[in-house]
Amino acid sequence: MDLSPEELQFLSIPDIVRESISIPKQSPKTFYLITLTLIFPLSFAILAHSLFTHPLLAQLNNPSADPSQTHHRWTILLIFQFCYLIFLFAFSLLSTAAVVFTVASLYTSKPVSFSSTVSAIPKVFKRLFVTFLWISLLMVVHNFLFVAFLVLLLVGIDTQNGVLFVFSAVVILSVFVVVHVYITALWHLASVISVLEQVYGFVAMKKSYELLKGKIRCAAVLVFGYLAICGTIGAVFGAIVVHGGDKYGVFVRIVVGGFLVGVLVIVNLVGLLVQSVFYYVCKSYHHQGIDKTALHDHLGGYLGEYVPLKSSIQMDNLEM
């Protein structure tokens, strides 16, 4: 990012995306290896997951299935789901750590390589994981409240009044989506904070909440756009690759599946780059300069380089 801190706060959504896309050009080999080893497995697992679960679910829904086989298939399904979630969360955190660390290194003119990024990931991962646990707790509470309101809707509203029932359901669903998008934005920004500042967990979430003030609309558009694109890719993959066996041949399904995996890889990479750039935009908007020397030393600490911090990462004025 060649823009000055004062200019970052004025970036529009297209500018943020454009700036994010240009970052890999500064170290193409590093980002190529990050994409190949971390983001590609993550993207492939997200889409391929339904390929393995669909046959099992079809067999479980078969009323003529042998009860003993059904129990066995349920066991396989639960084990597979557990392993999938562990893989998904692990590679999601690893990808976030790698991209945020690399972008920050480029921002501070620190030498960048894939080996240095991999070396830093273990220490970064611990901080990200704690933050992720706090966000997961918040998500659980959010989903519980959503289910509770749905139950209250079914119990307290006359289902015979179709207009009132549909209106109430739409309102509850809209609130759920809005809050879900906000929590996702909070999570993404807190993840970057956990890597670049001396805080993590609940404190990182609190800092994320403060930084989002004044930029909530921008964050919501970016997060909703990302989720909508991912949802569309998943829907097309499901319709053609997973459930399209009767309409499409094997070759078409393989080509479409490979293309969609490639698109999702690009979307995930750009999404991680955007959340990194958005952090600097929020810091600039709140006039919280970033001391590049202190940030450089902070990143070096992940690599075992002992360089005492000369100042806090947050400063009122940036010394260029």
Automatic annotation (TrEMBL):
The keyword Lyase does not apply. The chain crosses the membrane at residues 31-54, 74-107, 128-157, 163-196, 216-242, 254-282. Keywords: Membrane, Transmembrane, Transmembrane helix. The keyword Transmembrane applies. PANTHER family: OS01G0800300 PROTEIN, OS08G0107100 PROTEIN-RELATED. This is Polyadenylate-binding protein 1-B-binding protein.
